[in-house]
């Protein structure tokens, strides 16, 4: 655990900025990148509740993504995702303490790793999601979002299967994810899981993620669709490995 407060927060802010930039480019990944640094800086017991605030902040930074690509948002897809996701996220948050988090991390890590070839397999067969497929995906992802630190990469294949790419994908996924994280945060707050000092640390950490998001648009506009898809695979690969590492500790 870091001991110098200045160096601790400097490290968190720098990594948070990088994480926000990555998230702004591919639509997800900020909390996965920042989590190991929060464990190092504040210890594993504090990292999880701090991460809940950072996750909400990074999804509040989705306002930047939403406003940047406002005209390209697919509101029908967003509504379908939120329809199942909002109540499921609240239910997942309420059942967090009765489930073995390590087992969930292992399952999600393996899922993320499997989705790299799996997404390509789906794309090769041109299978697509409709409105109700996305609603069911939102319910499953919402429940898992309530339980674990972050399930951002789970929404990637769901919205990609709906046929969204680049700006439309980023903004629509951002709007849907924001609804889920608000539901989770409200539930945590109701159960007293967010004391004041954790909220402050989370707000400080999350501010750097928001700053990185604004830089990302300059990069996204220069990406080809093929490069964008490769970046998505990279985030899912890293996410899976990080979750498996966290479960093995």
Write the layout of secondary structure elements.
Blueprint: H1 5-26, H2 30-42, H3 44-60, H4 62-68, H5 75-94, H6 101-124, H7 131-147, H8 152-161, H9 166-190, H10 196-220, H11 225-248
Helix pairs in contact: 1-2, 1-10, 2-3, 3-9, 3-10, 4-9, 4-10, 5-7, 5-9, 6-8, 6-11, 7-8, 7-9, 8-9
Description of the structure:
The chain is mainly α and 249 residues long. The protein contains 11 helices and no strands. The protein has one domain (5-248). α7 crosses α9 (166-190).
Tell me the β content: under 5%
Stretches where pLDDT is under 50 for at least 5 consecutive residues are: none
Largest sheet, if any?
none
- The DSSP helix count reads 11
Rg calc: 17 Å
What are the salient characteristics of this protein?
249 residues, mainly alpha, 82% helix, 0% strand
């Amino acid at each position: 655990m870091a001991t110098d407060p200045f160096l601790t927060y400097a490290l968190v802010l720098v990594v948070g900025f990088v994480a926000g930039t990555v998230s702004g480019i591919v639509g997800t990944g900020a909390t996965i990148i920042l989590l190991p640094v929060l464990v190092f800086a504040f210890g594993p017991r504090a990292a999880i509740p701090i991460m809940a605030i950072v996750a909400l902040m990074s999804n509040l930074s989705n306002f930047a993504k939403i406003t940047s690509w406002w005209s390209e948002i697919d509101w029908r897809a967003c509504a379908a995702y939120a329809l199942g996701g909002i109540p499921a996220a609240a239910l997942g948050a309420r059942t967090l303490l009765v489930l073995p988090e390590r087992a969930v991390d292992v399952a999600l890590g393996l899922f993320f790793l499997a989705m790299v070839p799996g997404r390509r397999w789906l794309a090769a067969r041109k299978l697509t999601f409709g409105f109700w497929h996305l609603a069911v995906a939102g319910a499953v992802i919402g429940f898992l979002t309530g339980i674990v630190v972050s399930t951002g990469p789970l929404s990637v294949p769901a919205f990609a299967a709906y046929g969204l790419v680049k700006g439309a994908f980023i903004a629509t996924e951002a709007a849907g994810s924001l609804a889920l994280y608000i539901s989770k945060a409200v539930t945590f707050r109701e159960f007293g899981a967010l004391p004041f000092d954790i909220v402050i640390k989370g707000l400080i950490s999350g501010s750097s993620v928001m700053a990185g998001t604004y830089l990302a648009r300059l990069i996204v506009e220069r990406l080809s669709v093929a490069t964008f898809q490769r970046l998505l695979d990279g985030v899912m690969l890293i996410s899976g490995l990080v979750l498996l590492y966290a479960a093995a500790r």
